[in-house]
Amino acid sequence: MRRSHVTTVSLLAALALAACTNAKDVLEPSAIAPQSTQSLPGAGGAATPPSTAAPSSGTAPTADTAQPPAAAAVPPAKSAAAIARTRLQVAPIVGASVEAATPLTAELQTRARQRGITLAGSTDQTPTHVLKGYFSTMTEGKDTTVIYVWDIYDPAGNRLHRINGQQKAPSVGGGEGWAAVAPATMQAIADQTIDQFVTWLGGGAG
I need a labelling partner for 33 at 20 to 30 A (CA). Which of 41, 57, 79, 137 fits? Predict the structure, then answer.
């Protein structure tokens, strides 16, 4: 009976000691296995997505910006040579009154000299070009318009070029026709005529 009691006490003591040892293991931090931590989307900063940029192929293609070739301009030397060899003869004006033709002819000579054109007299047999003019007028209300046509011929009588136009200005003295045309109107026509003639020469005319 006594031995049985001792055995029982010994068994209880052993169980108590085992219980204390297990409790110590549980409370020891080193005995707790660390849990794996997995980042959640959006926690601790967003994950960087993989780059989707295409690999560089080197120099980027460039647009073709080449400009079309400009139209060839007449070289100044060629234009000057054409003017230098020109001898222009002005034929009698057709259709204009003497009073209107006088300032016209005088300004043709002045403008031609300014542009480097040599004028040939009416009896000169060596002109390179002959200029023949045809004129008319039209009066409407307080204005009178001078209508003109110039034909340019070679010495053989072949027409090479034509210049035409009209000049409108207030009528002089309330008259009509040539009596209403001011000298300044005819001078303006002369300047325009020589300028257009020089432009035509510079364009490669013969």
Answer: 41
Query: 137: Cβ–Cβ under 8 A, 6 or more apart, which residues?
Result: 144, 145, 146, 147, 177, 178, 180, 181
The whole-angstrom separation of Cα 30 and Cα 133 is 123
- The answer to the question of residue 155 being in a domain is yes
Domain range spanning residue 104? 76-202
The 8-class DSSP code of residue 29 comes to: G
Contact 168, 145 (CB under 8 A): yes
What CATH number does the domain containing 166 carry?
Answer: 3.30.160.150
Q: Side chain identity at 43, as an amino acid letter?
A: A
pLDDT per residue as tens digits for the range 4-52 = 444 444 544 444 444 444 444 433 333 334 433 333 334 344 444 444 4
In whole angstroms, give the CA distance from residue 125 to residue 145: 35
Decide if 193 is inside a domain.
yes
- pLDDT tens digits for range 130-158: 999 999 999 999 999 999 999 999 999 99
